[in-house]
Amino acid sequence: MADFLFNDVIRSQNSEFLLKTTTSDYQKLIISSFFRNGTLLETRTRDLNPEWTGEALRLRTRRFHEEKKREIEMLLRLSERMRDSDQAELKNLLGQAFMRRGMHEEAVVEFEEAVVLNPKISVIYNNLGRAYTAVQRYEEAIATLEQAIAMSPGFADFHNNLGLAYLKKEYCKKAVEQFLRAADSNQYYAEAFYHLAMAYVLNAFTKEDFALSVNCHQKVKDNLDKAAKINPAYNNEFAAKAEELLKQKKYEQAYKSLEEGLTKITKPTDMSFIMDFYLHVMHNGTKVSSKDIWRHIRQLQEYLEKYPNYADLYNHLGVAYVIMSKHVNNKAIAQFDKALKVNPTFERAKRNKRLAEYDHKGMQLLFDAILK
Q1: Would you say residue 369 has pLDDT above 60?
Q2: 160 belongs to a structural domain
Q3: Alpha carbons 195 and 201: distance in angstroms, whole number
Q4: Which residue of 31, 42, 192, 277 is surrounded by the most CB atoms within 10 Å?
Q5: CA end-to-end span of the chain
Q6: d(CA 109, CA 135)
Q7: Residues with Cβ < 8 Å from 332, sequence gap 6 or more?
Q8: Looking at the 3D structure of the chain, how many domains does it have?
Q9: Could you give the CA distance from residue 115 to residue 135 in angstroms, rounded to a whole number?
Q10: pLDDT per residue over 270-293, tens digit each?
């Protein structure tokens, strides 16, 4: 099978990116990789169909490449277009979309603006704290995440993210406290238990707190076991290697092994397409096609077949139908306008247009509320 490769340079006002998409017969994947200054930001893949050969495979690879390119360009254009927007929720969505693609500097800008526009939403502080951690602005991350927790103290994710910021600063005792709070808030939080193990290992290396170092190996093993029981993906070669290194008191190497293991953990089902679709709708407005909306609806329905008890998916499917209703309503208004252009005194068309416009306002209010 022939391999195909497509490259594109994507420029923003402040950065230059490279998008590279290729086929891998060995991995049976189409792989699209996104770089900034030679640093890999994100990789996305699509399974290869064995029936795709020659020109069919080239076209599929090219289509996947162009799809990823459009997504990135859309985000950059939307960010620029919304620079003076006063919609904190939209900027928060944009920031999350940038974070998913490893574009952390761009995410920081969106979250910072969102916090200024609406300083009462704790989730935005949490997202900004995560972004600060990603760009190694750890002191700012800690202060911002502490603010998020002050506003919403029961959110396990907030404590976990603050713990990670402390861990980056090698404040092991404070990191352990936050990971324990995260685990107390959500006893099925596998990531918090894994991070606890990492904090105990790092403390054994830095020797920050003697009390934490007591029975270190057992604490690490207990927390790795808890993480693995919740998510078997944590029971991997890197965790096993870390335990062996701990026995040899090679704490730094053990920590690095656990860090590497994090990158190999099976991620939860990727539903980022939902937020990407909302951004697509907000960016393109009335230009969104019924084909785009129906494709999104079918994707949601496919997920519901796999996860029929996932209430949030039903909610997003309802949103998709609201968007479809808006789309059809706009088409209806356009037809009434055509009727009135032909016959300006056509009273039934005037009445129907007024009714359609009234419905349109209601649907717009509903859509705006949904995204808050």
Answers
A1: no
A2: no
A3: 10
A4: 192
A5: 48
A6: 12
A7: 352, 356
A8: 3
A9: 18
A10: 567 787 787 777 766 667 788 888
